[in-house]
Amino acid sequence: MWVLRRSGSLENGPSQSIIALTLLMALTSSFFTGVIGVHAIFGAFMAGLICPHEGGFAIKVTEKIEDLVSALFLPLYFALSGLSTNLGLLDTGITWAYVIGVISVAFFAKFIGCTIAARLNGLVWRESMTIGSLMSCKGLVELIVLNIGLQARILSQRTVTISRLLRL
After folding, report:
1. Which of 70, 108, 109, 153 is paired with 3 by a 20 to 30 Å CA distance?
2. 62, 74, 70, 95: which is closest to 144 by C-alpha?
3. How far apart are CA 21 and CA 57, in angstroms?
4. Whole-model pTM?
């Protein structure tokens, strides 16, 4: 906080050096949580929590680094997940039937549930189905949880492969 006040980053927005310091803090925190046996993502999350939110500092930092994260780090994370997915583990027709069944049930349950909920809240059918479709999209958080489960040996490679296909 003292550094931010002294540098004027709270009033004028973060400078390049403050952005670099913030990123260094997140990476260092990630490293040390990894060293103690906790997944590195929790360290970065904690670094984000302790960043000051006064004067919109956290929002300004987010605005400055979101292009870098979206253009570089997220694609790399998804590529890494794809490279570590082994479709060869899905080698039988029964396994593929199971995968298709799980994907179908997951999609339609979420689509129908969200569509009906939106319709009951007064939206027209077209808008309700749009919400149902959008709510059926899968996200990054699910991939992160799957990767943590795989690294901790809680989930098998086959289970993670099926779940990653479900996330598409």
Report:
1. 70
2. 74
3. 13
4. 0.63
Q: Is 67 exposed, middle or buried (0-12, 13-18, 19+ CB in 10 A)?
A: exposed
Quote the CA–CA distance of 22 and 24 in Å, as a whole number: 5
**What's the rounded Cα separation, in Å, for the pair 84 and 38?**
21
Check if the beta carbon of residue 135 is closer than 8 Å to that of residue 107: no
Secondary structure in 3-state letters for 17-49: HHHHHHHHHHHHHHHHHHHCCCCHHHHHHHHHH
Q: How far is Cα 140 from Cα 80, in angstroms, rounded to an integer? A: 13
Q: Mind listing the pLDDT tens digit for each residue in 100-130?
A: 998 899 889 989 999 999 999 999 999 999 9
The pLDDT tens digits of the residues spanning 66-113 come to 988 889 988 898 888 888 888 888 888 898 898 899 889 988 998 999
